[in-house]
Amino acid sequence: MAASSVFRPGLFKHKVAIVTGGGTGIGKAISAELLELGEWRRDTHYFLRSAEALEMRQKLPPSSPASVTPLQCNIRNENEVKALVLSVLERYGRIDFLVNNGGGQFSSPAEHISSKGWKAVIDTNLTGTFHCCQAVYSAWMKQHGGAIVNIIADMWKGFPGMSHTGAARAAVDNLTKSLAIEWAASGVRVNSVAPVSNYKELGPSLFKMSVPFSPAKRLGVPEEISSAVCFLLSPAASFISGATLRVDAGQSLYHSMWDIPDHSAWPEAPEGENLEALKDLLNPQSKL
Length: 288
Ligand SMILES: CCCCCCC/C=C/C(=O)SCCNC(=O)CCNC(=O)[C@H](O)C(C)(C)COP(=O)(O)OP(=O)(O)OC[C@H]1O[C@@H](n2cnc3c(N)ncnc32)[C@H](O)[C@@H]1OP(=O)(O)O
Ligand SMILES: NC(=O)C1=CN([C@@H]2O[C@H](COP(=O)(O)OP(=O)(O)OC[C@H]3O[C@@H](n4cnc5c(N)ncnc54)[C@H](OP(=O)(O)O)[C@@H]3O)[C@@H](O)[C@H]2O)C=CC1
Description:
NADP; SDR_fam; phosphoprotein; binds NADPH dihydro-nicotinamide-adenine-dinucleotide phosphate; 5-stranded parallel β-sheet; Rossmann fold; lipid metabolism; binds ligand LOHRUJSQ; alpha/beta; 8 helices; NAD(P)-bd_dom_sf
C-alpha cells in the first residue's frame, strides 16, 4: 500500500472501525488511510463490497496483520444496521470508530422531486446516519467510548438543485451537535466533515464547471477528505467534539454555483423616497 498519509503508521493501534460505503470514492480513501495507519496491528476492519475488500487486501504488504472485511448493509434499514453492529462485535469484540460516509442523492429542481424520492434521500442520508450512530452507541460506545465522524456536504448556502440532500445534511450537522452533548459522558466524540471533492455522477463537465468557484482553482481529491477524517478520529482531536470541519478550500465562503436568471418577478419595494432613489439608480439616464 502506498504511504500517502501524513500521519504515522501505528496511529490507530488495536482499533476496529466501521466505514459505511467504505469501498468507493471518499469512503475508499478513508478505509485505505485507516488501513495504512493501522498496519502494525491485528484487527482493523472496514465495511464494503467483497470485490473492493479483496482489492484493498491485495494492496496490503504480506507482513501486515491488518484486515478488511466486506459486510453488506443497507443503512436505511434499522434491523440490518443492528445486525451489522452485532456481527462486528461478535467477530472482533469492539468498535472504536464509526464513519458515516454512505450516502447519495440525485439532482433535481425541488418542484420535481417526488415524495418517494424525497423520502429515499432523507432515509439514506439522515435516518441511515442516525441508525448507525444509535446502534453503535447502544451496543458498544455507551460503555466504552469511541469516535464518530459524519460526512455531510457543502450546504451552508442551501443546496439548490439538491434540496433534499441539503436538508438531510443540515440535519446531520445538527444531530452531530446533539449527540456530542448527549454522549459526552460516555467519552464519545462526534464530529462532521463537509467535503467538496470530485463528484462522479455529473462527471468531467461538473468538474470543469466548478473549478472557477473554488478559491483553490481546483477540486479536492478523496485523500484530502480522508486525512481530515483521520485527524478527527485520532488522539490529535481528543478535545474536539460537536464540530463540523469544512474541507472545501473556503469554497462555501465564496460564490454560489447556482445561476439566477434576470427576472422582474420580485415584489416591489415599499413606496417612498428610498424606492424613488432606487429607481433613479436603475434609470439609464441617471447621473448618479
Ligand atoms: C451543482 C452541483 C454540485 C454537486 C455537488 C455534489 C455533492 C455531492 C456528492 C455526492 O453525493 S457523491 C455520491 C454519488 N452517488 C450518489 O449520489 C448515489 C445516488 N443514488 C442513491 O443514493 C439512491 O439511488 C437514492 C437516490 C437514495 C434512491 O434510492 P433507491 O435507489 O433505493 O430508490 P427508492 O427508495 O426505490 O426510491 C426511488 C425514488 O427516488 C426518486 N429518484 C431516484 N433517482 C432519481 C433521479 N435520478 N431523478 C429523479 N428522481 C429520482 C424517484 O422518485 C424514485 O421513485 P420511482 O420514480 O423510481 O418510483
Ligand atoms: N464527492 C463529493 O464531492 C461529495 C460527497 N459527499 C458525500 O460523501 C459521501 C461519499 O461520497 P463519494 O465517495 O463521493 O460517493 P460514492 O457514491 O462513491 O460513495 C457513496 C457510498 O455510499 C454507499 N451507500 C449509498 N447508499 C447506501 C445505503 N443505503 N446503505 C449503505 N451504503 C450506502 C454507496 O454504496 P453502493 O455503491 O454499494 O451503493 C457508496 O459506497 C456521501 O455521503 C456523499 O453524498 C458530500 C459532498 C460532496
